[in-house]
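Request:
You are asked to prepare a plain-text protein record giving the amino acid sequence and the backbone structure tokens, at your earliest convenience.
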Amino acid sequence: MKILFLVYHGFSDVSGISKKIHYQVKGLWQNGHEVHLCYYDRGENGHWQRLVSVENGRTAVTHVIEDYGTGRMAGLRQRTSYGALRDYCVLNGIQMVYARCFQNANPWLVSFFRELKAAGIKSVMEIPTYPYDQEFQGFSRIERLQLRIDQLYRRKLARQLEAIVTFTSEQQIFGQRTINISNGVDFDSMPLHQRVDTSRELHLIGVAEVHFWHGYDRLIAGLGEYYRAASATQVKPVYFHIVGGVWKSEMHNSEHAPGFAELIAKYGLQDKVIFHDQLFGEALNAVFEQSAFAIGSLARHRSGISDIKTLKNREYASRGLPFVYSENDSDFDHQPYVLKVPADESPVDVARIVAFEEQLRMSPLEIRQTVEHLSWKVQMAKVVSEVQSEC
């Protein structure tokens, strides 16, 4: 099958989202499909362009579909001009479009998918996080306006699709049926963790483009209470490594919780919380190698989400690390290497993490083996199979 994978932005080597998209594309061509990856980025001439990279696992040939020029008008044009992309799909025999939701529903996008449908091209849209409206709290006025436009047109857009792909258990979203899958893993890119000695100290790792719903403030506050309660006794030193960009709003004067900097100063944790900024490749692996326990999302409830299958949980498990989170995730809720904490604003009980890690007997390989069915090859095959079954 010829599949066009549509995203509305470019890529970054250090972005987890970018890596996920490329792994999904890989999962599709591993199932024998020809994948046309369509994205929006700055071209060699400095102009903003819509490009398509045709991938088969061995080579990639890139075409410029439309050139939007420069400046603010280029951004506006790419949100309203889809004629060239429609023609590309028709002329190149595209049979299915897999679009990644960018909260950008508008009349022009609705028309684009309506025209694809009229041409006999099946379309699905992946919504990475649902619901997502509350994630716009604290965003700029322009971004909130874009969300408002999306709210006005997303149900009309959904009617032009075959289904909406979701990592939740929802059976319908925006009035459209869903295809329920899990976030997947590319095992080729995830080295197996080697168990480290935690008898003297414990290193925790959290990897994210940090937002308020990650709730790392709860872990930092928990560290502070751990050391405060143990001030008169000997305790195992615990360190928290945060890998990824941290928004200024989360570091200082957070509107959702105390800022990281305030908490670190309050509890004197300057040498216990280590910020690594964004890392990838061997630099990221080096931080993982000294860590024995991982931190998932601890505050999805702040964005109104109780059930979600996050990518990070799967990446931790594929490396063979135990981890903690607060949401509901049916793939992991009953796994013996997972620690659940309440979905509230209480500090995380770090002493409980220490005790949990000390008694865990599963090896990294045994943890990894529990998620072998969550490869992107398997998950993307489910999507294509459901779309084909409707033909």
User: Anything to note?
Assistant: Residues 141-158 form the longest helix (18 residues). The mean pLDDT is 93. The longest strand covers residues 60-69.
